[in-house]
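Exam revision sheet. Question 4 asks you to relate a sequence to its structure. Input first:
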Amino acid sequence: MKKLYLSVLAVSALLFGSCSDFLDVQPEGSAITNAYFTNDQQAIDAIDGLYKPLHKETVFGRDLFWEQGAACDIVWGRTRNFNSLATLSYTGDEEPLRNSFDTFYQVMSRANWIIKQLLDKETRTELSDVEKRSLGEAYFMRGMTHFLVAYRYGTDKQGVPFVRYEDFEGEYDNSIPPQQPTVMDNYRLIIEDMDSAIEYLPKFEEYTEYERGRAHQAAAVAYKAKVYAYWATWDESQWNNVITMVGLLETEYGRDLAQTFDELFSSDFADYWNAEYIWSIPSTGGVNGGGSDFPGVVLENKGWGVYNGWGQIKPTLDIYEEMAKDGAGNDRLVRSILEYNQEFQFFGETMRFASSSDLEAGFQVNKYMDPFKYANAIADGYVNPNGDWPTARVNFPLIRFAEMLLFRAEAYIMTNQPELALSDLNRIRERSNLTLLDHTPTMTDLYHERRCELAFEFTDHLFDLKRWHRSSNSEIKALAEKELNSRPRVRNYEDRTSPTSAFTIGYYADYPNKEPYQDYMMVFPYSPEQVTKSNGLLKQNEGY
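Answer key, structure tokens:
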């Protein structure tokens, strides 16, 4: 019994223990940890340790969105000390950057260990079905988190630190992971991990009701498409691979658009796994909570006296106007953004929107408001009763099929097949009852659709702009340059408590002037502390 206790304790420390940064490596590969994976439950527990960090406030719950202030679609809504993120004055020491960097490397390290252990076991005996699935999940999570670091820090001049434990005989020696020569080398390794994930993972449809939310084959294919799209920043031949991957999602995995835009953000469990679903953070309310905090983060500060929303991450006038190009009050606009005097349901009461957040923008994100509409939202489990942990019943999307169609449309335009992009763009527009395009699409059309369809989801609009700024297409390059060098605008209301108040338009008050965008700003700088602690092994990105 004592031996069992020690093995569980040791692996728990390995999987859940925190560390201040990725250079603070901890001993691995001891006799105790090598004795793990003796039954299916241990494999399940190990993989659950990889998923858990994605739910954190410091990742998809909030912190990754602070970066987006440098584009023109969101502002913070409350004063923060991260103005360097919004003004392109990056230092690398910003708390949100450090938080996500540390978390992703922790997940990579833990996935590395799981892969190594299960591959070693596979040489000795046949893995169980659960262990095979777990191996696929570990490959997927290593590839996903590796990608989230690679495109945000890696360039054609140097890649990001990464090593595969299985490439070493015996145990990895806990050295600082070497930087790959270029980010393309990182992308090759990510593609290999996703291919390995596909080999071991089941299809989504093979999971039981209680297993849904785990990694599956289609999610790995979708990430391959996304990696190839980012790879195309440096090698435009990769657009052909994007087209192939999206085609596979349709023909091999049956992915399609949901019937309505509304159902994508529904609080009904029956809508969670519609045809458009590919990869998400399934979130719940109730006393036990779970999933992303983001619905409560974007909710009005103190929730009009009913619920403790945080009042952060506000839409700008810029994104509102972009959406309104499709007609005032169009379905996609109304479902995405609350504006002053717009009617909505909140805890069973019909209200008209007004806001008293610390710093006003004049708008609120509406995509994730569905669970808050019920009179008994807390008692019926739609919303967490703890406003300091404001999870709500929403399947928070990370990748959905609409984004895949947008990547394919972009690939068609970039490979001189713009006429083929028309169908993909119009499928998205038709679903939201928007006027269909009647001309050969251009990158201006693509810019509009991607910006509007995916607003306030972590599809990383800021890095869309940064990769477009390097594009050989002069049209999208000019659009990206314009937004990267613009400051977000907001509505300033005379009487902020009145839904019908008059307003003036101005720049968001919390941001000073931006630095002019330069090519080196495409990626973030590494934390200077990380660089110093590496003793020269981690090289800072050019320009910082």
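Marking note for examiners. Confidence is low (pLDDT under 50) at residues 1-31.
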